[in-house]
Amino acid sequence: MNYPSIQKEDPLVYEIIKREEQRQKEGIELIASENYVSKAVMEAMGSILTNKYSEGYPGKRYYGGNEIIDQAETLAINRAKELFDAEHVNVQPLSGSPANLAVYMGLLNPGDKVLGFSLDQGGHLSHGHPLNFSGKLYTIIPYFAEKDTEVINMDKVEEIALREKPKMILAGFSAYSRDMDWKRFRIIADKVGAYLFADIAHIAGLVAGKQLENPVPICDVVSTTTHKTLRGPRGAMIMCKEKFASAIDKAVFPGVQGGPHDHINAAKAIAYGEALKPDFQDYAKQIIKNARALSSALQVLGYRIVSGGTDNHLMLVDLFGSKQITGKEGEKCLEQVGISINKNMIPFDPRKPMDPSGIRLGTPALTTRGCTEADMKTVADLMHEALMNRTDENKLAAIKEKVKDFSLKFPVPGIE
Ligand code: DSN
Q1: 183 an active-site residue?
Q2: 27-38+279-407 classified as CATH 3.30.470.20
Q3: What is the pLDDT of residues 344-365, one digit of tens each?
Q4: 364 Cβ closer than 6 Å to some ligand 1 atom
């Protein structure tokens, strides 16, 4: 995209955008939560819809002049309903944590008990971390993966639920590579009379693309961000059964937020429209194929993949266990050659969060650029070469050139 007005009015910002454009174009993006949106989604985000205030919901606003904004929000809602088979959708949450805050506020009272997947095992901050609102305001009972398999044992989840009788069970993750057993979560929630809340931020695109089971008809409430595998603008939404619609809507506004971001909601409508097209299913299928290919290629090179592989778009690599390289060292070394990943705790990690044993990798962004399984082997080889030569500045500079040559073969949407 060209930005002639920014170039003219604010050369400093223009320069920053152009440099970031170059970084995105010339680098390999493996951060599991990142992706590249379409030009259409980007245009909506930069549109005049940003000029409007619209507190309230379509047809019931606190400001005049919303008759056209109502159409954009309603379009986003209807497309999301179709995509996820949802009874009710609120597209206003500004991002994942505010969406989750609204779900807690809508269904619970402060102090209520919530069962959530522990952050150091693959859960999310908003699933009960002590420094997050969730851990501060609610009584969080964590569940864990098994030490030997590194997979969640649903019998153990049931045992904890029967013992603790939580008011809500939260199923979801930001660093877990295995399928969630939504139906078993439902059975457990019903046994103890708990709400079942799924956070599908990471896998929403794989659900929309019909490659993973859709938890929306199974759960009471489901939240998701819109910018990860779903490939929409930075934001979130909440889907729920009709009987929770009023509680959720009130919790979003006026509970947590003021005015919605109407330009982002229009971009959400566009992204959902894109996800309803048949080729989105091919994209989602390819993400999983690529993740499996990357995981296998790394295993061949001697890297231990947590739980032995992946069912979705991401994997955790036990870098310290496999190669005695810490997650922080790995992240820094790969960054130096233009490969973006993030350090990550692995289940039962003996190391600390700022320098853990693992790194997390994901394939959505590379899949959007058109990479397939054979390219994953090249990516694994480049990563390995960099990690094995991490103290050799000359070799790292040469690998960076190889990363650039590889990356330039795959265009980034929106970057000419
Ligand atoms: N920051 C996101 C991730 O990387 O998984 C979760 O919010």
Answers
A1: no
A2: no
A3: 999 999 999 999 999 999 999 9
A4: no
